Amino acid sequence: MTKQFHESLQRYQIAEFDKSWGEIRRGIEKESLRVSPDGRISLGAHPEALGSALTNPYITTDFAEALLEFITPAYTDIDECLSMLENIHRFSLQNLEQDELLWVASMPCPLSADAEIPIAQYGSSNIGRMKNLYRRGLHNRYGSLMQVISGLHYNFSMPDSFWAPYQKLCNDTQSLQDFRTDKYLHLIRNFHRYSWLLIYLFGASPAACKCFVQGRDHGLQEFDDYSLYLPDATCLRMGNLGYKSEAQKTLFVCYNELQTYVDCLYNAMHEPYAEYEAIGHKENGEYLQINTNLLQLENEFYSTIRPKRNVKSGERPLDALINGGIEYVEVRALDLNPYLPLGIDSEEVRFLDTFLLHCLLSESPICNEREFFEVAANLAKVVEQGRDPALVLMQEDKEIGLRDWANSLLEDMAHSAVLLDQTHETGSYSESLQRQQAKVANDELTPSGRMLKEMRDSGLSFFEFSMARSKQTRDHLQNGGLSDRTREEFIAAAEQSHVRQQEIEAAESQSFDEFLEAWNRS
User: Fold this and answer.
1) Which of 162, 171, 241, 520 sits between 20 and 30 A of 454, alpha carbons compared?
2) What's the average model confidence in pLDDT over 42-55?
């Protein structure tokens, strides 16, 4: 046992960290807009060759027909996970129609407030119609623009072999399911405290097209005739331009106990909200939204991280959490990095694992309302001013410089990096952490800093920069790279997904009105 490894065990007050505990499972969900060769959002339907958006396990759509979502299974091997994501990209690009591209930036291609954005379609089954109606409700509540911003979700879980021994080390006597759930909530509380660091390190949306904010208050500055930005911004996607809901601003969601979290979201899903009641539930025989409550569904709650569990057919996500406990966490605070063909790479993955393991193993006091809104204020500051060297955040009601806090956190996270390095017999986790420390020392190394510097130095608008990177990514991924076997597997998955959608539709025995009424009662 090395001295560093021993010190890391002491830091987390554990007697061991077994080799098998490093077999973290991760899956990636990545959104990308389909755009025309001249950089306009695609108005075409989801390509037939990509399968059914309802049932294809690898390729679906998010809000819009043009907003593709790529989904990997969960892998314990980082390279296998990224290889699968790359193969999904290659297959999709090779099957796009009319020379379409995948937009590599999180902030979308040129769009105006009244832009035509076809909402995603999922067929005639009740669940397919429900998915479409949920998106129609998002359009009516928030408009479509914020819904076509793209992000990357990172699903993280510890291996099964970790939990029973770790419970014993913690001298915990509750059921293993409850222990695991409590520790994932423990992780989530720490994640919220420190998520501003991910925004600084990986934020890649410091600018947007001017037309994107047409007719809206925004507070951005003019970068050029076509682009708006903030000089020290990191991740406008996570600010007022992006995934924000005025209705949810005062919603205090507590992560101390699972039941409290579930009750909070359940109440929001059953609490009428005047502004949404004004929209109405139905007009001229057509539904406008699932209901007129504060949240239509659990997923409408915007958060940087979610507790998750794989659900059975017909099971509600909150019910699944109560019945089976938390199975994994879904990190939702990540931009697409336009400098990386997949929007993410192994260095970022290793840092995310290091960060999340630290959040799991280190102390995590219970949250309260004061801290909840302090955390939200810190995040908002880093979104708009993160690269300002003088930026000050709040830590337990006390001021602290962002860079001082970042360096302190990264120094502490060296312990989780050492644990992972030891179990994988590598130095890659510590090297990834050192790369992040370099970004704190020099903000031009961050994706947001690199983007603005390149745009200035090359005289590029946000649109021109994004188009250039999108074409480079297409050229890198579109030609070749897929084995015949892999291509055949994706074709088979697409064909089977169409069959599966038809089977679901043929098996319907309930009208959509009845289905929706029962859903809203549950």
Assistant:
1) 241
2) 97
